[in-house]
Give the backbone structure.
Amino acid sequence: MHFLLSAAAIVLIDLLLAGDNALVIAMAVRSLPRKERRIGTACGAAAAVALRVALTFAAARLLAIEFLQLAGGLLVLWIAVKVLHDASDAPGSSPSPKRFWEAIWYIVVADLTMSTDNILAIAGASKGNFGLILFGLAVSIPFVVISSNLLADLMDRYPWTIYLGAAILGRVGGEMIFSDPYIVRVAHPGDLLRYGCEAALAAGLFVYGWVRGSR
């Protein structure tokens, strides 16, 4: 019973904290053809989860690594800008093996840097039990894959959701940047500055996407 309760807690943690990750995956694979999109989503999510399993045992140290979240936040912002640039193209209009592997690379790196809160929560719930960690993360793969594909299809049908997704990534990227130990140590950003910058990044990306789409 204790094992089942712990496993259920890990699965619930994954479901609650995987929304941003699913959005990044959807944005990264949006320009791929439909068939490659599903393959890329599954491969990227599986690779990211495998890395999370390996890093969960060193979870407490991840948040202390300077520049890790800073680099991840900048990558998330770059993905948002790149997707807005590609939004004027029809999905799958220019498929290439290079774009496919680029999408998987974006998924793995962004997921790895965005998942420190997820990793810490899972490490606490599992109490170091490798079987629980593996089970919980493995169960979360279908949720992330299905959610990512649904979001990508939604962006195909309603292009304005791309701008909304970019705005959300802007907030996520800003949060990661201002949570980096180096930025905290050097700049000591207060809550007002942090929230203001996150809101500015979100609004800036939304307006940029909207203006570019209108043109």
